[in-house]
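Possible regression after last week's pipeline update?

I re-ran a chain I had predicted before the update to compare outputs. Posting the input and the new output here so someone can diff against the archived version. Not blocking, just want to make sure nothing changed silently.
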Amino acid sequence: MASLQRKEKKNGEVVYRIQVSLWYDKETGKRKDKVITFKPNQNASMKQQEKEAKKYAIEWEDKLKNGESYEGEEMSFADFAEKWLESRKEELAYSTYIGYVQIVNNKIVPALGQYKVARIKPPVIEEFYKSLVGNLANGSIQKVKNVLSGMFRTAVRWQMIQVNPCRDAKLAKNKDEETTLKYFTPEQSIMFLKTLDMEFETIIRGHERIDDTGKPYLVADYTESRKLPLQLKVFYTISLYCGLRKGETLALHWNDIDFENKTISISKSVGKGEEGAVIKKPKTKTSVRTVGMPDLLIPLLKQYKRQYNEYRLQLGTAWQGDGNLFIQDDGKLMGRSTPYQAYKRHIRRYNEWVRENPEEAKKQQLEALPEIPLHGLRHSCATLLNYLEVNIIDISKILGHAKSSTTMDIYAHSFEGQNTEAANKLNDFLMNNKRKQA
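New output (post-update):
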């Protein structure tokens, strides 16, 4: 709260000295204050003058607290970073905010915290970027750059500096790192769908059990054939066919599935909250969308719905679900890490089977698959759609991008080979027509 001190000059003029405490300088341990002198209406009563001064003090303090008058030459970047994080806390999803906190506190502040905000110039930032090379992947370096640039954009908006120094700073990268997206080719996508129906032998390690009398006994190692649970097969098929993000797929309810019109409505996503998983709005406004389902997905979903309803009735009062497609044993929403962990295990088991059974794999026209991330199924969907010559605007709408240019920025490299194939088709078409005209 700002403090007010009334003063009366020798000539009888009344002024108020207003003082606001802003922050503590961590280097000196001293408090940083701002002081201003306010001159009220000299014809007003003392009570009215005090009221006027208090109103002005509140408004002025709010401006200072919001950063409108922060001095870039005086505030350390470490103190600014703390203020910046606080200002973003209510605006960001919890998981995004936590990610920002980790980047700011673990990467940026240790390197730049001792500088005054206005003293950080492009050469300083370039040296910082270089220090990240070899320690972080290029994608992670880009994330650090995005956060840092966002911080300086705020510093410009708060009038601490005039120009964002990140604008002219050259980003250093690991030259030998593979930076292309990880996805399945159209042929690999078809192969991946085949693997979802395969059984793989799994070694169950020795463990203790309890018999009917309550007596413990030891079970030796044994081998068991296991197949991917139907709900996970549905999860991965939707991810690949429809291009949904993991959180969007995980948040689906049965009432989002329209069997008659063959569509899926995406209106929510599962994110990370302070106390676990939370249902939130999708990533962007354009992420709220309706996508079509291919005919092959319909019977699979109907099969799963029958199994789902039978299981719900079997649990009876123990059922805790509320209509989520993907569930835990008690019907509650599936854990956020479950589809990712199961996906990794599935790809590895399949690749092990290919290595151990080369003749059978060759007979079934199966090959080892690249161990792409779960989000790679979304990228695979985009690549498959482009291969099938779906126009870029429709691909963008299916993926929930705000602009088709965003889609092109992300997938330009993965579309290159397919665009070459399109050029070959065009060439064949022109040559055939030329022969007909000859």
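Follow-up from reviewer: compared with the archived run. The chain has three domains: 3-47, 77-168, 186-407. Marking as no regression found.
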